[in-house]
Amino acid sequence: MLDTDTLRTFITVAETGSFSMAAGRLCKTTATISYRIKLLEENTGVSLFYRTTRSVSLTPAGSHLLSQAREWLGWVDGMPGELQQVKDGVERQVNIAVNNLLYCPIAVASLLAWLCERYPFTQFHFSRQIYMGVWDSLLHEGFSLAIGVTGTEALGNPYEVEPLGAVQWLFVMSPDHPLAKETAPLTEAQLRRYPAVNIEDSARTLTKRVAWRLPGQKEIIVPDMETKIAAHMAGVGIGFIPRTLCLPLIARGDLVSSTIPSMRPSSPLSLAWRKYHSGKAVQDIVNLFTQRQPEITGFLTLLDAPQS
Predict the structure, then answer these.
(1) DSSP H helices in 157-279
(2) Cα 303 vs. chain centroid, distance in angstroms?
(3) For the chain, N or C: smaller number of CB within 10 Å?
């Protein structure tokens, strides 16, 4: 009843809006096309087309069948390639978590273009995570690989890590902020009067961490680094921003940097992946990073090179 030839005939009629045009496209007679559609309607027990003397159009049932038929035929057509990938040890799906600090749409698109060319039947899912949320995705949510986990040591035995480098931090604020007028080294008492602007850790299972906040200090939570930088420039609050992002803004006069009693140390970040049961796609991504190939350099722009 719903064999592939019949479904292809149905889709072609729906797309052309004409039995005769569908016949021409499929190199069949109009009578053959009409008979196949009539038989399909009899077997399903519903009318799939409204018919006029000049054209045909889909009924609600026909519209539903069209969407389902396209999806099913796409699956059927792709199945030989998918089976070959499975045979070759290629994953059906690869979930990748990316640290908010390293996330760059162009970098993700570049890596995706490289991956999709090689693994057209693999489903790739990228997720933007913050702080311990990157590890959380890998440890507790079934992700295959994480770009930018904190530290240089694996949190669990089944994982491998490859150091990527470290983020250097500067303490910054708006040039119009009251603290920007203070010439002496800033004290904790002075800092505590003004809000710290932070991005909330996205961890769901692991303990969330706070980037920087003094005891008793007000905290403003924003969703991403772009908003955090904008809040600093607007004089909303104070805190640390990656040095690479700060320097152009400081040079332009949009931010100023200061020294505080406890400066934030550099943050080493690593690539992490499952040690066992990783497929070819994950291993190829690992190789791109370990060999510092052009396809992944967009993820590394904020990082100083790892210590040898």
Answers:
(1) 188-191, 225-233, 243-251
(2) 20
(3) C
The residues facing 274 across adjacent strands are 159
Distance of alpha carbon 245 from alpha carbon 230, whole angstroms: 12
Q: What does pTM read for this prediction?
A: 0.74
Q: In 177-235, where do the E strands start and end?
A: 196-199, 219-222
Residues facing 50 on adjacent strands = 57
For 40-66, what is each residue's pLDDT tens digit? 888 889 999 998 878 889 999 999 999
In whole angstroms, what separates CA 62 from the centre of its chain?
35
DSSP state of 209: -
- Rounded to 10 degrees, the C-alpha dihedral 174/179/183/184 comes to -130
Summarised one tens digit per residue, pLDDT across range 121-146 is 888 999 999 999 999 999 999 899 99
Strands of the sheet containing 93-99, edge to edge, are 123-129, 93-99, 145-150, 267-274, 159-167
Comparing CA positions, the residue from 101, 96, 174, 170 lying closest to residue 138 is 96
Backbone angles phi, psi at 72, to 5 degrees: -65, -45
Angle at 140 between CA 82 and CA 240, to 5 degrees: 110
Query: Residues with Cβ < 8 Å from 297, sequence gap 6 or more?
Result: 107
CB-based burial, 280-298: b 16+ in 10 Å, e otherwise:
ebbebbbebbeeeeebbeb
Reported as a single tens digit per residue, the pLDDT across 218-231 is 999 999 999 999 99
